């Protein structure tokens, strides 16, 4: 699986948006939302998201977005969120995803540096994407 760090939505790559549980949806706070069509934003506002549930939204231009709300955000929750995103993407047979590290930095309650966030994301994505294929004969 290929993971790209970006702040815009690509048509053929699934984007991931992570929101805090009480966060209001605003284009100014999340760069991915800036590329949403008006109809997409209306559909997004109608979508009921409980904390911890990951949902996929199909946009009018044909792109896909994974949306996740988190209640409290700390180091341990970051690890679990990344693993949840990767396992969901594997289950849905998604080969490439876009993450915006600023989403995680904005939610950060423990003031983890952006470098540490990137390191945690890379490590946990690698662990969650592991597949044992070499067998003993």
Structure commentary:
The chain has 137 residues and is of the alpha/beta class. 35% of the residues lie in helices and 20% in strands. It has four helices and five strands; from the N terminus they run E-E-H-E-E-H-E-H-H. A five-stranded mixed beta sheet has the order 1-5-2-4-3. A hairpin with a 5-residue loop joins strand 3 and strand 4 (64-70). Helix 2 (75-91) packs across helix 4. The longest helix is centred in the middle third of the chain and has 17 residues, at 75-91. It starts with a strand and ends in a 9-residue tail after the last helix.
Roughly what fraction of the amino acids lie in strands? Answer: 15-25%
What pattern of helices and strands is seen along the backbone? EEHEEHEHH
Strand order of the largest sheet: 1-5-2-4-3
In the predicted model, the low-confidence regions spanning at least 5 consecutive residues are none
For the record, give the distance between the C-alpha atoms at the N and C termini, rounded to a whole number. 28 Å
- Approximate shape: globular
How many DSSP H or I helices? 4
Total number of β-strand segments? 5
Classify the oligomer. Answer: single chain
Structural class: alpha/beta
From the alpha-carbon coordinates, what is the Rg to the nearest angstrom? 15 Å
Main sheet makeup: 5 strands, mixed
Mean pLDDT metric: 79
Helix content: 25-40%
Give the helices and strands, then pairings.
Blueprint: E1 2-5, E2 14-20, H1 38-46, E3 54-58, E4 64-70, H2 75-91, E5 96-99, H3 101-107, H4 114-128
Parallel strand pairs: 1-5, 2-4, 2-5
Antiparallel strand pairs: 3-4
